[in-house]
């Protein structure tokens, strides 16, 4: 059986870095800023996906330059509901 790890954005200081290092040679999927976080820790995800609306253009370009399969989605915009 193959394990696939998924790194998402969010509160990244809660990521157990010891587990990240232990699984560095496994398959990784990066979601939104999680893809950049993986690169920052020496892991190249096989796939990166998300709307990347909070990812600066240079960081998104860095993912593309690594040849990572990149899938982007339009950001979901919520409209305020009237009270």
Structure commentary:
There is one protein chain. The protein contains three helices and four strands; from the N terminus they run βαβαβαβ. It has 83 residues and is α/β, with parallel strands linked by helices. The chain has one domain (4-72). Strands 1-2-3-4 form a four-stranded parallel sheet, with helices on one face. The model has no long low-confidence stretch (mean pLDDT 89).
Quick structural summary:
This protein is of the alpha/beta class and about 80 residues long.
Protein traits:
four-stranded parallel beta sheet; alpha/beta; 83 residues; 3 helices
Number of helical regions: 3
Give me the strand/helix succession. EHEHEHE
Radius of gyration equals 14 Å
Gap between N and C termini, in Å?
51 Å
Taken from the alpha-carbon principal axes, the silhouette is globular
* Major sheet: arrangement of strands: 1-2-3-4
Quote the beta fraction: 15-25%
Q: What does the main sheet amount to?
A: 4 strands, parallel
Helix content: 25-40%
* Sequence stretches where pLDDT stays below 50 over 5 or more residues: none
Q: How many distinct domains? A: 1
């Amino acid at each position: 059986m193959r394990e696939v790890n998924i790194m998402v954005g969010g509160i990244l200081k809660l990521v157990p870095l010891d587990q990240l290092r232990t699984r560095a040679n496994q398959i990784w999927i990066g979601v939104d800023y999680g893809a950049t976080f993986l690169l920052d820790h020496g892991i190249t995800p096989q796939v990166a996906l998300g709307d990347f609306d909070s990812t600066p253009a240079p960081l998104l370009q860095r993912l593309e330059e690594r040849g990572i399969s990149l899938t982007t989605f339009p950001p979901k915009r919520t409209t305020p509901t009237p009270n």
